[in-house]
Give the backbone structure.
Amino acid sequence: MQISGKLLKACLDGDHLAHMKLYEDCFPFLMSICIRYTSSRDEALEFLNTGFYKILITLEKYQGKGSFPAWIKRIMINSIIDEMRRQKKYKNHISLLDNTELQWKIESDQDWFNASSVTAEDIYRFIAELPPLTANVFNLFAIDGYMHKEIAKKLGIGLSASKWHYATAKKKLQDQILALMKSKKMSLL
């Protein structure tokens, strides 16, 4: 995504056509972020629109230093987290033990393994099937690079809860991927 300084200047000057152009240019990038945090395209679009509004109203804070995509990504993720906090259906109250740990187990018999049998769409579908809070912790840690301490603070959960959700997501995703790969191998026999 290449965004020119001229376009950003026009946006800062209040040019509505420039706002539309920026929205169109950023849409694929921002939508790919939003869709990871929800299983509904409509809800992802709501997240995107709310986040894009926040990008526009804080655009004067972007100094042209660093990556513009990284800057808008951070705003979008923070906006999504804010929206999820507001939505009751994303509230998830779980009592966890501090030392809960799950191991990422790899099956020893992997002669059937074929990574090409699993597509990115399969993985995105599996992530979307996770409970919302678990999926969000997984996305924030594994994909967006946040640390558990940051995730816990942003989502208003404990540090151990963040780690538990991440470990649970990894285990469930692994099980789903392994099951899919086995079923595809069986269908080839």
Q: What stands out?
A: The chain has eight helices and no strands.
